[in-house]
Each structure stands twice: as structure tokens, then as C-alpha cells.
Amino acid sequence: MSTTRWSDTETSLLDSAIALLMDPVSIEDKAANISWENWNFTKVFTDNQSMQLNGRNIQYNMIKCTYDQISTGERPLEDRTVRKSVFIIAYHNGISINYILDQNSSAQKMLRKLLSYTGKNEIEKNVFSFSNDFFVWLISKVYNSDNVIESNNDNLSDLQLESIKGFRGDTEDSQTKVSATGESVMNIISTLSFLLESRRLNQIKLELNYADHENISLILKKNCVAIDFKPYQGVYDQDPPDSITAKLYLLVYLEILPIIEQEYQSNVADDVWSNIAYINFMNNVAQNLTEKITAKISTLNK
């Protein structure tokens, strides 16, 4: 499930935010097409946890919720009810309270309901907005083996882009792999054809190496972030599952994504990545493909 992040402009203390999240939820308006009822809450950590990220002490806890999502209609209630779940990582970054939760379109409405907010601007978006150009830039860096991003910060480690496991666009789906260690003919064909046919990339699956984490697998969408936990290898390996979830999402949002985003913005500002660089990238892919096909034909003619 993809996550989004939101900032709280009303509550400034982590314990207060957690108490608001876990207090009784107001009864739904029965006139709504969809209602959320029968909430149950579990605070994952008895005491708030802390970790050092990006040179700051981050205080956090995690709330797991289950609820019934009920649609209107004439059918029996049990046929209109689906049991749902959501996790909310609430954290204080030294300045403000933020929430990471595995909801997208309903995230703001859900947070406002759980926190009993009724005013304006109490919950604001705090998301990374990944563009088509950003995705193509990532593919080009991995394809060209320009895959190490230096943090230039004593508090942070360098980051290595290991591979692009797949990407998706408006017109085509592809499960290719563009590896930092080299490309096969099929990978080149898949990359070139996809970039030519897709109007816009809207999702990418990226594997990376960072600090004491040998393999982190991210799925990035326009405003959403998901982690594939199955291939994870790293210092959190022996932690309980909920602890891994909380720590990895905090690490990704507070350290890894800022490093990648700043590298992209620096490349754009310095004209390292531009429309000309994009054209050159496409030409290089086409040239590599032509050379490999020519070599293959030469071998077959012998």
C-alpha cells in the first residue's frame, strides 16, 4: 500500500497527537455514501521511540487502526461492510508533528476525522511530488552507471542506486530491469521502446543501497511512496515487523528521498540534466541497441 505524509499545524506535542488519534471517533453522517465505523486502535510502542535522522532527533510512535467501511444501499448491512486497516506513523521532527499513513486519496479526511479537527488548514500535505522528468532522470542515472549520489553531509551517507526494477506509464506497463552493472539487449530494447511509447511515467520501482542498508526497494508514484519489504537487507533485519515498517519509512522520508531530490534539483540547476541531456540519453540507448544488434548479426553470419 502506498503512503502519503501530512503535517499538523494545530498540535505541537507528540503525546497530544497520539491521544487525539486514539480517542473515540465521532459518529459518521449516515447520509454519506461511505461511512467509517467501529474503530479499534493499537499503539504499537508502549513508549515513544527515538532515532537520529538527518542530524535531528526524531520522536515517533505508530498507531494501527481497523474500521468498518460501510456503503449506503438497500442490501443487508453485512453485504455493504468491508473491514479495513491503516497504520499511522506519528513523529515529531523537532519543529512540527507529521504523519505517514498508508492512505492516499482519503488520507487528509481520515486524519481530520481521527484528530477531531473541524477548522481549516490543520492538516497540510507534506509529500514529494515526483514528475515524469524525475523518473526519466533516475532511469538515465542507473542506465549510465552514474549511480552513486554523494550526500556532502557529515550526518548522511552516500547513496547508491542499484537498479530500476520496473516502471509504469500512461500507455504501457513494463517490468523491465535496467541494472547499474550493465544491460542486456532485451533490457535496452525494453527501455527504449517504453520511453518512446509512454506519454508519461507515473511509477518507478527502485532498489538502492544506503548506509547500513544493503537493499531497500522503493515504489515511487506521483505523490506516494511504498516500500517492498520482502527484499530488504540491512541493520533493521532482526527488528519486529512493525518496528521495521516505522523505521524504514522514517529513514526513507527523512533521509533517502531528500538526498535523491536534492541531487535531481542540483542536476537541473547546473544543466547536468536538461532537455539536451534527455535527448543524448535516448540517442545513447538507441546507439547501444544498434551496436549490439549489429554484433549479433555479424555473429550469426559467420
What does this structure look like?
The strands form 2 sheets. Strands 1, 2, 3, 4, 5, 6 and 7 form a 7-stranded antiparallel β-sheet that branches. Strands 8, 9, 10, 11, 12, 13 and 14 form a 7-stranded antiparallel β-sheet that branches. A hairpin with a 2-residue loop joins β3 and β4. α4 crosses α6. The longest helix has 29 residues. The protein contains 6 helices and 14 strands. About 5% of the residues have low confidence. With 302 residues, it is of the alpha+beta class. Helices cover 32% and strands 34% of the residues.
Task: Please mark out the parts with pLDDT under 50 across 5 or more consecutive residues, or reply none.
Answer: 171-186
Count of helix runs: 6
Structural class: alpha+beta
Strand content: 25-35%
Largest sheet descriptor = 7 strands, antiparallel
Taken from the alpha-carbon principal axes, the silhouette is globular
Mean pLDDT over the full residue set: 87
Query: What order do the helices and strands follow?
Result: EHEEEEEHEHEEEEHEEEHH
Helix content: 25-40%
Distance between the termini: 52 Å
Radius of gyration, in angstroms, nearest whole number: 22 Å
The number of E-state strands comes to 14
